[in-house]
Amino acid sequence: MYAESIDNLIIELSKLPGIGPKTAQRLAFYILKCPATEAHKLSEAIAKAKDSMRFCKVCYNITDKEICAICSDSQREDSTLVIVEEPMDIISIEKTQEFKGKY
Could you tell me where the DSSP H helices lie in the chain? Predict the structure, then answer.
């Protein structure tokens, strides 16, 4: 229905979690309508995040350093440990500002 490059963009966007075909189409056309500088900023942000992020060697949280800020923090309680399934779970817990242990 669309040019190949637009179809490819819609297909790739629809692979994102929670993004169905209609939302992918809306996002694709939003990207096409926005200024080229904004579209390039988005693609650069994705590429930079993908290239620079890695898993912490201690807890496997996502970080841009070898050891994440939580594991590096000497103020954190080494004796308290929470096991999480995904790095996003750490964000949820950290937002409470109550947990002072490690993951």
Answer: 4-14, 21-33, 36-52, 69-72, 87-95
